[in-house]
Amino acid sequence: MNIIRKNSTEHLRFDTSKNIPLLTFDSLSKESCAMHGFTTRLGGVSRGFLKSLNFKEELGDTAENVAENFRRVSAAFDTTPDRIVLSQQTHTANVRVVKESDAGKGVTLPRDYSDVDGLVTDVPNLVLSIFSADCVPVLFLDPVRKCIGACHSGWRGTVSRISLNTIRAMHDNFGSAPSDIICAIGPSICIDCYEISTDVALQFKKEFPEHTPEILLDKHNGHFQLNLWSAVSITLKEAGVLPDHIHTTDICTCENPDLLFSHRASHGKRGVQGAFIKLL
After folding, report:
1. Residue 40 falls within a domain, yes or no?
2. What is the C-alpha to C-alpha distance for residues 65 and 58, in angstroms, rounded to an integer?
3. Which pLDDT score, from 0 to 100, does residue 8 have?
4. pLDDT per residue over 223-245, tens digit each?
5. Does residue 202 sit within a domain?
6. What is the number of structural domains in the chain?
7. What is the rounded radius of gyration, in angstroms, for the C-alpha atoms of the chain?
C-alpha cells in the first residue's frame, strides 16, 4: 500500500507480522516491558464505509462485527477481549486509573464510568485503548516505574491539556518521573488538512500564547490551520517529558483514507481505529 507521509525525522513502521497490520514506533517497540500499536482500517470484518477494522457499533456496525474486530486486535496483543479496557470518550480532559477489576469493561463487560478520555495503569496484561478518526491518540510508557497510559486528544482535549493530566496521573499514582516517560503521538489529522474557525483558534491563542506561530496558521479569511501534533508535543514538554522521548506520527489520517478512518475525509461516514498499549 502506498502511504502518504509527512516530512518527519521518524517514520511509523507498518508492521504486518501480526494477524492484523499495526502502525508502531521503534522507540516503544524496543522496550521489553510493553506492547503497543495503532490499528488501521485493514484486517477486520466490518463492511461498507466501516470497512473493515471498526471498533464502534454506534457508527452503524453490527455487534458481531465489532466483537470479532476486538477478538482480532486482542490476538495481536497475545490476549483475549476480556483483558481490554475501553475509554468512554466525550472530549474531556479526564483520566481514569485502571485497576484489575476494570478488565473487559467496554468490550465484554459494561462500563461503570463515563466522560473518560484518558487511561493509566500499572497492572500487567491489561490492554488500554482509545479510539479516533482524526483526533490525536497519545500513548505513554514509563519503563522505570512500569506503568502505561493512553489518551484521546481532540482539539478540546488538547486545549484542555489532557496529555498533561495523563502525565500527572502517572506521577501521582505510580511515582513516574516525567523525564522517564516515553510518548507516542499517533496517526491523526495534520495541519494541512485541519481548518478551524476563529473561535477555536482564539482558545489556542489564549492557552498557548507563546507558541501560537507553531500551532496556528492564519489564512486571513476568518479561518486557521491547526497543528495538533505541535500542540500536544508542546504540552508534553511543558509537563517535563524529554524532547527525545516524544515521537510524532508522520502519517495523516485525512491524507490516507484507504489506510485510516478520517472524519474529515469521509464527511462523517467512517469507523474508528484504535491505539492500544499493554504492560507485560
Report:
1. yes
2. 12
3. 67
4. 999 999 999 999 999 999 999 99
5. no
6. 1
7. 17
Report yes or no on 4 lying in a domain: no
Are residues 151 and 132 in contact, defined by beta-carbon separation less than 8 angstroms?
no
Q: Which three cell numbers stand for residue 241?
A: 517529558
Q: Quick check: 99 and 123 in contact, CB under 8 A?
A: yes
Burial 74-103 (b: 16+ CB within 10 A, else e): bebbebbbebbbbbbbebbbbbbbbeeebb
DSSP bridge partners of 275: 38, 130
For the chain, give the percent of residues with pLDDT over 90: 96
pLDDT tens per residue, range 14-23: 999 999 999 9
User: In the predicted model, what is the mean pLDDT of the chain?
Assistant: 97
Residue 273 domain boundaries: 13-190+229-279
Looking at residue 123, which CATH number applies to its domain? 3.60.140.10
How far apart (Å, rounded) are the C-alpha atoms in residues 130 and 276?
7
Own/partner pairs, 23-27, CB within 8 angstroms, 24+ separation: 23/186, 23/187, 23/251, 25/184, 25/247, 27/182, 27/184, 27/245, 27/247
Cell match 490476538: residue?
A: 75
